[in-house]
């Protein structure tokens, strides 16, 4: 199987692992064959946990604190979660939407993603058109009350 050369206290050793079955290995050292017991320690594999950042709805109390004074009150925005291309806009300005309604379809990483509303209200403005390329965090739709 595998050959190794060792030098221990000035002495040369030519070794070859002939076979391994369970925890017994047959090893040849300088022409002599030995049965060697291998001490196995089983490593416990840990399953990684998927950690996702907490999603804050666009209409939450935090958005009112950070809005500009000139911005309309109660307006939330839907942002692009990934860079991609807008394939289809499913709503029009003035449409009433509920939480979970599909607003548009976006292609990102060769997959079609439904971008859904996280707030109920009326569509104020649509900031994108079919075929537009967007970056992560770009505003796609504004939803008002």
Strand share of the residues?
Answer: over 45%
Helix tally equals 1
Indicate the mean pLDDT: 81
Number of domains: 2
What is the C-alpha radius of gyration, as a whole number of Å?
A: 32 Å
Tell me which CATH architecture of the largest domain applies here.
Beta Barrel
Write the CATH fold name of the largest domain.
Answer: OB fold (Dihydrolipoamide Acetyltransferase, E2P)
Strand order, main sheet: write it out. 1-2-3-4
What is the CATH superfamily classification of the largest domain? RNA polymerase II/Efflux pump adaptor protein, barrel-sandwich hybrid domain
Number of strands: 12
In this structure, how is the largest beta sheet organized?
Answer: 4 strands, antiparallel
How are the SSEs ordered, and which strands pair?
Elements: E1 2-8, E2 11-21, E3 24-29, E4 32-37, H1 61-66, E5 76-79, E6 84-89, E7 96-97, E8 102-108, E9 111-116, E10 121-126, E11 133-134, E12 139-144
Antiparallel strand pairs: 1-2, 2-3, 3-4, 5-12, 6-8, 6-11, 7-10, 8-9, 10-12
Task: Give structural notes.
It is a single chain. Helices cover 4% and strands 48% of the residues. By secondary structure, it is mainly beta. It folds into 2 domains: 2-37, no CATH class; 71-144, RNA polymerase II/Efflux pump adaptor protein, barrel-sandwich hybrid domain (OB fold (Dihydrolipoamide Acetyltransferase, E2P)), CATH 2.40.50. The strands form 3 sheets. A 4-stranded antiparallel beta sheet has the order 1-2-3-4, with no helix packed on it. The chain has a 4-stranded antiparallel beta sheet with strand order 5-12-10-7, with no helix packed on it. A 4-stranded antiparallel beta sheet has the order 9-8-6-11, with no helix packed on it. β2 (11-21) and β3 (24-29) form a beta hairpin. The longest helix has 6 residues, at 61-66. The termini are far apart. The model is unreliable at 60-66 (pLDDT under 50).
């Amino acid at each position: 199987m595998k050959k190794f050369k060792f030098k221990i206290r000035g002495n040369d050793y030519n070794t070859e692992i002939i076979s391994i079955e369970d925890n017994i290995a047959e090893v040849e050292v300088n022409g002599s064959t030995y049965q060697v017991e291998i001490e196995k320690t089983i490593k416990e594999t840990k399953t990684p946990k998927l950690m996702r950042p907490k999603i804050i709805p666009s209409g939450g109390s935090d958005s009112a604190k950070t809005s500009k004074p000139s911005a309309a009150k109660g307006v939330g925005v839907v942002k692009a979660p990934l860079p991609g291309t807008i394939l289809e806009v499913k709503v029009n300005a003035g449409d009433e939407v509920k939480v979970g309604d599909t607003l548009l379809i976006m292609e990102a990483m060769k997959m079609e993603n439904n971008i859904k509303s996280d707030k109920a209200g009326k569509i104020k403005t649509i900031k994108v058109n079919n075929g537009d390329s967007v970056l992560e965090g770009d505003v796609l739709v504004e939803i008002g009350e």
